[in-house]
Design brief:
about 375 residues, six-stranded antiparallel sheet, mainly beta, five-stranded antiparallel sheet, single chain
Length: about 375
């Protein structure tokens, strides 16, 4: 078994292990521009071309086109790589929305859904590969007893060494497939579709019940969603995604807040506010050109009917938003890497955030502003 090695990889880049908080405005640091409330700590440059990861307890799981890597992040400023797994069908498309219960991990690629045993973090192994079950994202349902695919597939994982396709959650629904699904509470699922749907899979995971819908009133693409505090929060958070070249246009992907207080009464969600970045100069904290607009986001651990959200916005880097008690969105900070394309943001603690970037790897940041 390989001994864990602390990743002091920043030495390879010729930059310091840590950097002080940048001064007010958009002063440049070692390869970035940042607002005064964002401090760059260091970088882990190995995990490039990753679109997403997952944090469970003190373990961080991240996928790239080369496979899976697992890190101990109990000291978040200095993650330790515990182990990894290279799949036989590499190079492959990496898993965007990695999901795990700490025992098994779902990784879909090249037409197969791979069931990975991750109980031994130093030596993850493949339990099974299910042909025809690879959809854009795969989500654990009911403690990974089932998996829901973004396009509707339902997989029975109660025997993870013998997974089985058992249904389609979109059958008979007002939306049949999309980009992602989120288990917002045990057995309750919100789909990133148009319209958004809230499904109940507690009694019958193979035939979920439709509880509510949310239609934006146009044909926009829904990328991902989160409902903080296991459906107790009054806001449903939703992100879109579009291709460039400009992210400030009215038809580009946006970050949205939705009213989640009335679904029991009228079976609907309604959009409250949406936010798009401003195209411009890096010295103003903006990007000039883009490949895509908006990607994965995450609310701060203290979020309660409003609060802080961090969102990956490709060439616009990581943007920090404050959600007011009325659901209005305002930007309060940013981290804009030079030559980067940020794909996902994860709060490791109430101050430390990992910004996963297709070009750079993992930027480790500290947010020092109001939470």
């Amino acid at each position: 078994m390989r001994r864990p090695v602390v990743l002091l990889l920043v030495l390879c880049l010729g930059v310091p292990l840590a950097a002080g908080a940048p001064s007010a405005g958009a002063e440049p640091g070692p390869g970035y521009f940042a607002s005064e409330d964002v401090e760059w700590i260091t970088i882990v440059p190995l995990e490039t071309d990753s679109p997403g990861a997952a944090l469970l307890d003190d373990t961080f799981y991240i996928t790239t086109s080369r496979g899976l890597s697992i890190y101990d992040v109990s000291t978040p400023e200095a993650p330790v790589r515990l182990g990894g797994l290279t799949l036989l069908d590499t190079p492959q498309l990496s898993e965007e929305d990695v999901d795990t219960n700490g025992k098994i991990l779902l990784l879909g690629t090249m037409g197969n859904l791979h069931i990975i045993d991750v109980e031994d973090k130093s030596n993850p192994t493949e339990l099974a590969a299910l042909p025809g079950a690879d959809q854009h994202t795969m989500t654990c349902i009911l403690e990974c007893k089932y998996a829901y695919g973004s396009d509707g597939i339902i997989v029975d994982l109660r025997d993870p060494e013998n997974p089985e396709i058992v249904g389609d959650w979109g059958e008979g629904m007002p939306a049949s497939g999309g980009h992602d699904v989120t288990e917002v509470a045990p057995g309750r699922i919100v789909t990133s579709t148009n319209p958004i749907m809230l499904l109940d899979a507690r009694k019958d995971p193979v035939h979920p019940k439709l509880l509510a819908v949310g239609a934006p009133g146009d044909e926009r693409f829904m990328h991902s969603n989160l409902w903080p505090r296991s459906m107790k929060d009054k806001f449903l958070l939703v992100g879109g995604e579009t291709s460039g070249p400009f992210c400030g246009e009215e038809t580009s992907g946006s970050f949205m807040t939705w009213d989640a207080t009335k679904w029991r009464k009228d079976k609907t969600f309604t959009m409250i506010d949406e936010y798009r970045v401003t195209d411009g100069l890096p010295t103003d904290g903006n990007a000039m050109v883009h490949t895509f607009c908006t990607h994965w986001f995450e609310q701060h651990p203290s979020f309660k009917n409003g609060g802080l959200v961090a969102m990956a916005w490709y060439e616009h880097g990581t943007r920090f938003f404050d959600i007011s008690k009325k659901g209005q969105i305002s930007e309060v900070g940013y981290f804009l890497p030079v030559g980067g394309a940020t794909s996902a943001a994860y709060w490791i603690t109430d101050e430390i955030l990992y910004a996963v970037d297709y070009q750079r790897g993992i930027d480790i940041l500290r947010f020092t502003g109001k939470k």
